[in-house]
Amino acid sequence: NVMIDRHDPDTGRLVVSSRFVMFEFRGESQRIYGGSYLHDLLETDGSFRIARKTATVVDCEGLQETVGIYF
Questions:
Q1: Which of 6, 49, 51, 71 shows its CA 20 to 30 Å from the CA of 40?
Q2: What is the tens place of the pLDDT at every residue in 5-56?
Q3: Which residues pair with 17 in a beta bridge?
Q4: CA-to-CA distance for 67 and 36, rounded, in angstroms?
Q5: What are phi and psi of 65, to 5 degrees?
Q6: DSSP readout, 11-66?
Q7: Is 2:16 a contact under the CB 8 Å cutoff?
Q8: Cβ-Cβ contacts under 8 Å for 30 (sequence gap 6 or more)
Q9: Quick one: pLDDT at residue 59?
Q10: Which residues pair with 43 in a beta bridge?
């Protein structure tokens, strides 16, 4: 679901967007979050490096509980 939004071959800048869904199960409750990512990438040595990453959650203006993300 990754879409290329902009590409500038002169500067090596690439802007891509994608969607995400995250499920959290804590205790006896399950919460579901969805939204979109916007990545600003720079081409360096034949690869891409993330210059900026923005995550926008659906209903981001509403009251949200703390989200725990463990790696």
A1: 71
A2: 999 999 999 999 999 998 888 788 888 889 999 999 999 888 999 999 999 8
A3: 3, 38
A4: 16
A5: -80, 170
A6: TTEEEEEEEEEEEEEETTEEEEEEEEEEEEEEEETTEEEEEEEEEEETTTTS----
A7: yes
A8: 23, 24
A9: 75
A10: 48
More confident residue, 70 or 53: 53
Q: What is the maximal distance between C-alpha atoms in the chain?
A: 52
The closest of 41, 37, 39, 47 to 13, measured between CA atoms, is 41
Check residue 28 and give its pLDDT: 87
What pTM value is reported for the model? Answer: 0.71
Q: Which long-range contacts (CB under 8 A, 24 or more apart) does 40-44 make?
A: 40/13, 40/14, 40/15, 41/13, 41/14, 41/15, 41/16, 42/11, 42/12, 42/13, 42/14, 43/12, 43/13, 43/14, 44/12
Distance CA 33, CA 38 (A): 16
